[in-house]
UniProtKB/TrEMBL annotation:
This is Cyclic nucleotide-binding domain-containing protein. InterPro entries: cNMP-bd_dom (IPR000595), cNMP-bd_dom_sf (IPR018490), RmlC-like_jellyroll (IPR014710). Coiled coil: none annotated. Residues 246-311 form the Cyclic nucleotide-binding domain. Pfam families: cNMP_binding. Residues 330-383 are annotated as: Disordered.
Length: 383
């Protein structure tokens, strides 16, 4: 019997979200010398076009094939177009602009692993650094670095005999934000926490996959499309929200107390508790506090920071209440049965603010599955 060949793709995009840079380096962003990035789209159609419009800094494209015989994958490998796609960094001084091309590092790939259930698992690490110099003291030899810190993601893709696939973000640099897309190009996972100061000090040399260690990724599932639309309105409106920072364990809201502010979780993970029961743990992009704004001013849940977190806080008069009501109709976490809390080192778990569950794997890997739709796996493009 001639084996059937199926193909699958997973992609991560790395980008710098608003307000993510801290310390002295932030001044370059605040003064307009360089820029934060607009969030990438919910669906990837053309990576080359996104790169041409400076929509991401780095992309890890894990494209693979698998030969299927008698209902099992018997061989697998990486497609020729798998690898890293580099963006660029542009700085502006007055009306002048200079673009620095990023430097790609060698792609790290594990040998394909044939699993007992008949599927195959492939793992790829891609990354690099910006060409823009970043002189700074560091706490390890050589104690002064001129080159920028290193950025990377490690993706794992499990391909099944029926052509379906599951992507995991098993490791990533602590900065910037990493979004992961499935074989259909849909956003399914994202890194839950950015840590600029730690990344700036430590991400080079031996403390990277090109040395002797990777960094486990804290992963959350993608929030709903409605939340992404609302977050863009909040962050680009005439009345910009203030930014609040939370340490792990800090309360953002307490159930039953008054409140008329809306929250957008920019970074980190928050736990949602109602009547002492943990309903969910949610990650960046979640809109919170909408029921108190719309229904009389009492908080319906307690929100606690699981990790350090940054939250955009919007006043009630800065919110489109009609759009917010549409979004609130899809939430109603407190009216549903409790959703399992996040797991450590597991796959997707918990529930999102909105529709699909939000998974958090603290110190582990998040995963998301893709089932073939009208297109065959061979018709799913890698870019």
């Amino acid at each position: 019997m001639t084996p059937t060949t199926v193909h699958a793709t997973a992609t991560s995009l790395s980008w710098i979200p608003s307000e993510a840079v801290t310390g002295m380096s932030r001044k370059a962003f605040d003064l307009g010398f360089t820029h934060y990035d607009e969030p990438p789209p919910d669906t990837i159609d053309d990576l080359d076009e996104l790169r041409a419009h400076d929509r991401f800094r780095y992309a890890n494209v894990l494209a693979c094939w698998a030969a299927v015989e008698d209902g099992r994958v018997v061989r697998a490998g990486y497609d020729d177009d798998a690898g890293v796609m580099m963006g660029s960094t542009t700085i502006h001084i007055g009306k002048l602009g200079t673009t620095f091309t990023a430097v790609a590092f060698p792609v790290i790939r594990r040998d394909p692993e044939l699993l007992e259930d008949g599927s195959a698992r492939l793992v790829q690490t891609c990354g690099g650094r910006t060409g823009l110099p970043a002189p700074r003291p560091v706490p390890h030899p050589p104690f002064v670095k001129m080159q920028a810190p290193w950025v990377w993601t490690t993706l794992a893709l499990t391909v099944r005999p029926d052509g379906s696939s599951e992507v995991e973000l098993t490791g990533a640099s602590r900065f910037p934000r990493h979004w992961v897309y499935d074989a259909a190009g849909m956003l399914v996972l994202k890194s839950g926490l950015t840590d600029f100061s730690s990344w700036y000090a430590h991400s080079f040399g031996s403390r990277t996959p090109w040395g002797d260690e990777d960094s486990p990724a804290l992963v959350t599932a993608a929030e709903s499309a409605g939340e992404r639309a609302m977050s863009r309105l909040l962050m680009s409106g005439a009345q910009r929200p203030r930014i609040a920072t939370l340490a792990a364990g800090d309360l953002l809201t307490r159930q039953g107390t008054p409140g008329d502010e809306l929250y957008l979780l920019l970074d980190g993970v928050l736990a949602v508790d109602v009547d002492g029961d943990r309903l969910a743990e949610i990650g960046p992009g979640a809109i919170l506090g909408e029921r108190a704004v719309l229904e009389g001013g009492l908080r319906t849940s307690t929100l606690t920071a699981v990790t350090p977190a940054r939250v955009a806080v919007a006043a009630a008069d800065a919110i489109d209440h009609e759009r917010l009501a549409e979004l609130a109709a899809t939430h109603r976490r407190e009216d549903r049965a409790a959703t399992p809390a996040a797991t450590v080192g597991g796959t997707t778990a918990g529930g999102t603010a909105g529709s699909a569950p939000t998974g958090v794997a603290a110190g582990g890997a998040g995963s998301a599955s893709h089932q073939p739709t009208g297109r065959t796996p061979a018709e799913v493009e890698s870019t």
